[in-house]
Amino acid sequence: MSKVRVWFEELRPPFLILSIVFTILGILVALKDGYFNPLYAILTLVGVAALHAAANVLNDYFDYRSGIDVETERTPFSGGSGILPSGRMTPKGVLVEGVLLLLGNRYTDSSSTLCQRVSRYES
After folding, report:
1. How many helices (DSSP H) and strands (DSSP E) are in the chain?
2. What is the pTM of this model?
């Protein structure tokens, strides 16, 4: 199995769908109310997905470190991704992935703030 696929699995994509759906709903409300900005919409969508994915990944890391992942029987809705107990990724690799996702979220947040400041000066 490729490293990219394992990294992607670690994100637990099926659980990201709800965050993305509600973010899109918020974007549609902004569009309806006349406050839509395509750049903010994209930054918000990417930021929410990155933050939720980071929470999933870091949850796996800390659950594995505490030993609970080894004791828990995995189900479709609990027990994490199972990637660390199976040895498909190292704890360090999972931690790095989680931190990179947090930094990705921080980047989208910073970009959004910068765009807001620039648009104020253009007005």
Report:
1. 6, 0
2. 0.82
